[in-house]
Structures are given as structure tokens and as C-alpha cells.
Amino acid sequence: MTEGADDVAGAESQGGADEVAEPFRRLDERLEDLGRVIVRQSQSLDRLLDAEKKRSARDAAGADLALLVDLLALYGDAAGCASASTDAADRAAFTALADGLERVIVGRGGTLVTPRIGDDFDAVTMDAVDTRETGAADRSRTVADVLRPGLNVGPRSVRPAAVVVYR
């Protein structure tokens, strides 16, 4: 009878252990579920924060856009005067002015688009104002001359560079 009593007592103690373990198992599942919910909410908040940062940056860039376009025009004038000047002192002064304007443009979030002669024509950042005939096929669709630098603000081309393209 002790064997049977031990079996019954063991079954009762095992059943008692299961009864005690079951609430802990459910609590563990709920904690895992809560952890997943918190991770999803954290990811959602991160996405919202990133979107707000982008919106703020876009709004700030929009506020400076008119200023950047004016600075680009001044940069073009200063660079043009530097290249046309015959006096070395004037050339140095206009070059320094153009360099300073470039630093201000970059500091405000702009990027100058200054293609070089021989660069491939890029329709996104350049505007082909004119074309020139070329005898060499490898020079086709490359920059022949730069008339005016361009301006990018972030990924957007605000003012394309005016260029002459070989055809």
C-alpha cells in the first residue's frame, strides 16, 4: 500500500507542481508578447522620429533655398570676374571671394555642381545650353564648356549647371 500511496502522492505533487508552473508559463508568454509589442512600438517611434527629422531638414533647406540660389549667382559672378581679370591682385581677390561664397553655400547645405571639360553629360545635374560637333566618337555626350555652375541641395538639383555638350 505504500507503493500505491507513494504513486498517488507523487502524482499529487507533480500535479501540484504543474498547477504552480502553469501561471509562471503564462506569465512568461505574456512577458514575451509584451516584449514584442515594445519592440514594435520602439521601431514605430524610430520611424516617426526619422520622418520628422527629414521633414525638419527639408523645411530648413526650403527656408535657405532662396539664399542659396542668390549665393550661387554671386559665386558665378565672382568666379567669372576672377577668370576674366587681367590684374593678378583682382584675380586673387575674386578667387578668394568665390572660395568664401562656396564655403557659405556648403555650410548652408548646398553643393556646387562644377563639371569639368570632358566629363560625361549628366541630365540630372546639367542643362545642355548648346552643342558642338566633335570628330571623335568617344567625346560625344561629354562637356565641351561650362557656362555656369549648378546647385544641389540634398539629393535635389535646384539649379542645373549650364554646359555646352559635344555631339
Automatic annotation (TrEMBL):
- Where do the record's region annotations for Disordered lie? 1-23
According to its UniProt entry, the protein's GO biological process terms are: protein folding
Protein name as it appears in the record = Nucleotide exchange factor GrpE
What is the organism field in this record? Gordonia polyisoprenivorans
